[in-house]
Amino acid sequence: MKGFDPATLRTQSQSRMRTALGALALSAIWLALLFWYSDAVLDRFGVRGFVIAAGLAVLTIVLAAMNSILGAPRCPHCRTRLVGSFLPTAIASGKCGFCGKSLEG
Ligand SMILES: [Zn+2]
Questions:
Q1: What is the 33 CA–ligand 1 centroid distance (Å)?
Q2: Cα–ligand 1 centroid distance for 76 (angstroms)
Q3: Contact (CB, 8 A) for 45 and 83
Q4: N or C end: fewer C-beta atoms under 10 angstroms in the chain?
């Protein structure tokens, strides 16, 4: 288990957040286009094609959200995932926001 370096933690969480936001934006554009051209899409690919295309976008959003949550670092002591309000605390103090123990090492 690698140690928690606050700077690395911040960089990692930022890049994960960017990836999640990028996937989210792409999926939103994809869905918007899909619904914008829904008549043409339904004509050409039918309802099944439309549902599959919409499902892909939803799947991408779900995977991006799961990746940002499941990929989050855990406290080595209490195994709490350092997401949401715990992450800024962890980055600022180097301590777990839940059990208060040091994340170093
Ligand atoms: Zn902890």
A1: 44
A2: 7
A3: no
A4: N
Exposed, middle or buried by CB within 10 Å (0-12, 13-18, 19+), for 90? Answer: buried
How far away, in angstroms, is 97 Cα from ligand 1 center? 7
Please give the pLDDT value at position 19. Answer: 87
Go through 22-61 and write b for each residue having 16 or more CB atoms within 10 A of its CB, e for each that does not. Answer: ebbeebeebbeeeeeeeeebeeeeeeeebeebbeebeebb
Residue with tokens 């301590």: 95
